[in-house]
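Weekly sync, protein design subgroup
Attendees: M.S., D.O., the rotation student, P.L. (late)

Item 1: inverse folding check
M.S. brought a backbone from last month's batch and wanted to see whether the design step gives back something sensible before we order anything. D.O. pointed out we never logged the input encoding, so this time it goes straight into the notes. Structure tokens as presented (278 positions):
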């Protein structure tokens, strides 16, 4: 799950922490100028990191600008710390703050993410995606995206290729900054649910030595790559085309069925090892 916005009490606690840091800096010996001068930059980094957690409260149209301002603030403060501590070992607290800020920046591009998730006990065969809302058919979905149509390159989008066999609990698509990929009448095919305020997950499908599927692992796409076949293809990142489906639906579906070797489902776990996703 994504980290929820900070409640007012959390902001109060953070402000109190920063106030104490500022007060404590006065007790640092004058000779420790680097440490004294680092406090303001540490506070700037932590405050901006906390603000990035509130990005969903910013109107969607303003989020790219807000992200850019946050990145400038973090880079500037980190640059000042680098200048202060160049050639010396950084205090752990400064390193931790910078690492947390980098992680927050990576996640910020996915603020307000929505997803289509497989619900119920049955797997879901991903249909052919239409570029425009389908005129009929209950299992068709429209991504509202066409590789050759620049006007559809908006926001961030990832999807399983048509023909994928998604397991219960897995996302078949996620997006932000663009319209949802619903059907012609605004409904969804049976077996799918629309989830809001989620995180960008990748589904890593494990294979054995004979090419048969073993288990799926769900992990945030912002984390390090895991072993296995990545099932979701990133198509757009902040309006920039970064990927494409490589195989026709029928060929991909046939490979999926063969690799399942007659099994209707395979286990699904999270990167932490939890297996409560169906």
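Designed sequence read out in the meeting:
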């Amino acid at each position: 799950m994504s980290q929820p916005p900070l409640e007012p009490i959390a902001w109060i606690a953070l402000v109190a922490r920063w106030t104490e840091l500022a007060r404590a800096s006065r007790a640092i010996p004058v000779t420790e100028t680097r440490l004294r001068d680092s406090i303001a930059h540490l506070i700037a980094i932590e405050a901006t990191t906390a603000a990035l957690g509130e990005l969903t409260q910013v109107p969607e149209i303003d989020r790219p600008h807000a992200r850019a301002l946050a990145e400038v603030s973090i880079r500037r403060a980190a640059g000042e710390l680098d200048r202060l501590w160049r050639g010396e070992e950084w205090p752990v607290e400064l390193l931790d703050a910078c690492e947390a800020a980098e992680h927050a920046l990576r996640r910020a591009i996915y603020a307000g993410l929505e997803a289509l998730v497989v619900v119920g006990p049955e797997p879901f065969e991903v249909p052919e995606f239409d570029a425009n809302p389908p005129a009929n058919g209950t299992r068709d979905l429209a991504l509202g995206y066409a590789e050759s149509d620049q006007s559809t390159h908006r926001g961030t989008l990832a999807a399983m290729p048509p023909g994928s066999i998604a397991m219960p609990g897995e996302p078949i698509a996620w997006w932000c900054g663009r319209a949802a990929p619903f059907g012609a009448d605004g409904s969804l095919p049976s077996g799918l649910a629309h989830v809001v305020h989620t995180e960008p997950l990748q589904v890593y499908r494990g294979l054995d030595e004979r090419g048969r599927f073993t288990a799926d692992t769900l992990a945030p796409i912002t984390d390090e790559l895991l072993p296995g076949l990545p099932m979701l293809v990133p198509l757009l990142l902040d309006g920039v085309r970064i990927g494409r489906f490589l195989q026709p639906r029928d060929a991909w579906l046939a490979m999926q069925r063969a690799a399942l070797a007659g099994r209707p489902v395979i286990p699904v776990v999270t990167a932490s090892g939890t297996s409560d996703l169906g």
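Discussion: The longest helix spans residues 63-85. The helical segments are 8-26, 33-52, 63-85, 92-108, 249-260.
Action: P.L. to compare against the previous round before Friday.
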